[in-house]
Amino acid sequence: MADETPSPAQTDESGISSQPETARSSGPESPRPAKNGISKRHKALVILLIVTIVGGWFGLRWWIRSQTHIETDNAFIEARTVPVSFKVAGTVKRVLVEDNQFVKQGNLLAELDASDYRVEVAKAEAGVGVAKNETGGDYLKAEGARATVQLAKAKFDQAVLDLQRGEALFKREVLPREQLDRLKTAKRVADSQLREAQEALKRFLAEAGLAAKGGNKAKILQRRAQLEEARLQLSYTRVVAPRDGYITKKSIEPGINVQAGQLLMALVPLKDAWITANYKESQLTYIRTGQPVEFTVDAYPGRTFTGKVDSIMAGTGAAFSLLPPENATGNYVKVVQRVPVKIVIDSKSDPEHLLRVGMSVIPTVMVGRTAKDVLRDLNPFK
Fold first, then answer.
1. 69-79+270-377 falls under which CATH superfamily?
2. What per-residue confidence (pLDDT) applies to 137?
3. Could you tell me the CA-to-CA distances from 43 to 29, 30, 32, 34, 147 in Å, in that order?
């Protein structure tokens, strides 16, 4: 039909559509809605909100864990080092161990040339025999001294009788005073001779070892003590492992002359190793003896070892240093101090003795607090 309404857009002969001028001049174009009805700005806000919530959740969990699992990276493995040395001087004859070798208690480590010490033992044994012979002669001297005492006693008794008779005769004026004086002198002489003989007997008894109770043979005991000393010196020419451990710092070889007490090697009993963890003083609030500990070692990533808190040092590390700080000088600057905590290692977690002295570890002490306890401490109205 001729009066039919024209379409909003008409296409010319070239195929390009033409729109009315009014549509082109309309106001600014409004934002186009997304296919699901949510704009990009709303999407970004939702994602940001989710990330904030998730990050806050994990941050809260991390903070709570830091309050219930006390951790530090300032910790090292330590163990007692047992120095090994000879108690006597001599020339090293044999060395039976090498560096880093594991030895058991009682294993022979090194030996000295014991020829000189065997000679000393032989001399001491001979001295015991000589002492026995000398003691036999002293017994004879003591018996002779006893006989001398008996003789002096008899003379003294006779002198006493003679004096008594002389005094009786002098009273009857039968005996002159001169003879009476001689009888008194004879009694005093006999008394002195008796005392002299008794002292000689005591001396001979002492030399024979018969003066003390039990009849101890002094000389024989002395020589036997010397023999035991010589045998001990001989036994000191062999040094054995005082306990199980690993040999380290070996510094001797056969043929070297060593002195008594000279360090030969060191023995490290790794079975009794422990961890010294230097915690900040602010981390010690809830650490107690006996709490379980888990720790990792830089040398063995991915492996976890266990232990427990053994003790807490009586002071900070700075307080027991060579030059402790003097805070009364007026130039005080507060520094967070560290307190050494001793952690014993569970032997079952390291049956292969992989841990070595000086290794860096990261111990974590489980103090036994829960998330509820941590959050309760945040309540200002508790």
1. Efflux pump adaptor protein, beta barrel domain (2.40.30.170)
2. 61
3. 22, 19, 15, 10, 130
SS3 110: strand
Write out residues in the chain with pLDDT < 50, as ranges: 1-28, 214-216
The H or E element containing residue 227 is helix 218-235
pLDDT at 1: 40
| 94-108 residues labelled b (16+ CB within 10 A) or e (exposed) | ebebeeeeebeeeee
Residue 77: name the closest of 279, 366, 281, 363 by CA. 363
> The domain 82-115+235-268: what is its CATH number?
2.40.50.100
Consecutive H or E run containing 188: helix 177-208
Calculate Rg over the CA atoms of the chain: 51
* Confidence at residue 171, expressed as pLDDT on a 0 to 100 scale: 84
pLDDT at 375: 72
DSSP conformation letters of 42-107 = HHHHHHHHHHHHHHHHHHHHHHHHHHHEEE-S-EEEE---EEEE-SS-EEEEEE---TT-EE-TT-
Cα distances from 85 to residues 64, 200, 237, 262, 362, in angstroms, run 53, 51, 10, 6, 36
Cα–Cα distance for residue pair 196/293, rounded to 1 Å:
83
Our CA dihedral for 305, 311, 317, 322, rounded to 10 degrees, sits at -110
Collapse the DSSP code of 290 into the 3-class scheme (helix H, G, I; strand E, B; otherwise coil) and give the result. Answer: coil
User: Could you tell me the pTM of the whole model?
Assistant: 0.61
* Per-domain residue ranges of the chain: 69-79+270-377, 82-115+235-268, 116-231
End-to-end CA distance of the chain: 90
What is the model's pLDDT at position 217? 64
Q: Rounded to an integer, what distance in angstroms lies between the CA atom of residue 308 and that of residue 300?
A: 20
Q: Which amino acid, 134? A: E
Report the C-alpha gap between 366 and 65 in whole angstroms.
10
The pLDDT tens digits for 162-216 are 888 888 888 887 788 888 888 888 888 988 988 888 888 887 777 666 655 544 4
Q: How far apart are CA 250 and CA 266, in angstroms?
A: 7
102, 246 Cβ separation under 8 angstroms: yes
